[in-house]
Specification:
The longest helix is centred in the last third of the chain and has 12 residues. The protein has a single domain, classed as Metallo-beta-lactamase, Chain A, CATH 3.60.15.10. By secondary structure, it is α+β, with helices and mostly antiparallel strands. The termini are close together.
């Protein structure tokens, strides 16, 4: 699927990879044709073929966390393009060091261990073609998980923090359920109900939708009085011109 923003236009292609069908996002500027991969979990050949097909020069890899299906192809893409690997938070380096061992357990043999060129911290920013993306440290699924978001375009890349109708697993080593809930409610919800998100797996949704009916984090489940919607109709009408 393809999503678009306006002036300067950013285009997005979501490419599911690996047997786990992880959503790798390729974001690029149609003006400069420079782009990034968010969470290239595997199948580097397929990802680079997509970049070539759209004429995109990959200038960075952005990682939300260190699990194999999100970071497995990062090192190979760096070697092919010379681009830096940015993220996640340094608390996930132990996972990045175990990607090849993770792959052996899951029968995924093309993943390679990763050493980022830059770690990300809460409040950091990233740049692509003059557009600014924010960073929120959202531990719980993993200790070093980050969410990357484009506030103007109202789109977030949430990795395995949140899904349509579900939340990330916390039964993996160093997972923490309460931390995950706190990350969602304390870091994601303040970005606004209108924020659409690309999860690590499955379909897109909005934070507002999840606050309504997600059985794990809906306002009614957590005892909230409801989201502060503001002028939601006007916001959604504006966003419909950005993302179709």
């Amino acid at each position: 699927m393809t999503e678009q923003t306006q002036a300067p236009k950013l285009e997005i292609r979501i490419i599911p990879v690996t047997p786990l069908q992880q959503n790798t996002s390729m974001i690029w500027s149609s003006e400069t044709m420079e782009g990034v991969f968010v969470d290239p979990g595997g199948e580097a050949d397929r990802l680079m073929q997509a970049a070539e097909h759209f004429g995109v020069k990959i200038v960075a890899v952005w990682l939300t966390h260190g699990h194999l299906d999100h970071a497995g192809a990062a090192t190979e893409i760096k070697q092919r393009t010379g681009c830096p690997i940015i993220g996640p938070h340094e608390d996930d380096q132990w996972l990045l060091d175990e990607i090849e061992a993770q792959g052996a357990r899951y029968g995924i043999t093309d993943g390679r261990n990763v050493k980022p060129d830059r770690y990300l911290n809460d409040g950091d920013t990233l740049q692509l073609a003059g557009e600014t993306f924010g960073v929120a440290h959202c531990p719980g699924h993993t200790p070093g998980h980050v969410v990357i978001y484009h506030r103007e375009g109202a789109l977030a890349f949430v990795g395995d923090v949140l899904f349509r109708g579900s939340i990330g697993r916390t039964d993996f080593p160093r997972g923490n359920h309460q931390q995950l809930i706190d990350s969602i409610t304390g870091k994601l919800w303040p970005l606004g109900d209108q924020m659409r998100f690309v999860p690590g797996h499955g379909p897109l949704s909005t934070f507002g939708q999840e606050r309504q009916d997600n059985p794990f984090v809906a306002d009614s489940v957590l005892g909230y009085g409801g989201a502060e919607k503001g002028d939601a109709d006007e916001i959604l009408q504006r966003l419909s011109k950005r993302y179709t």
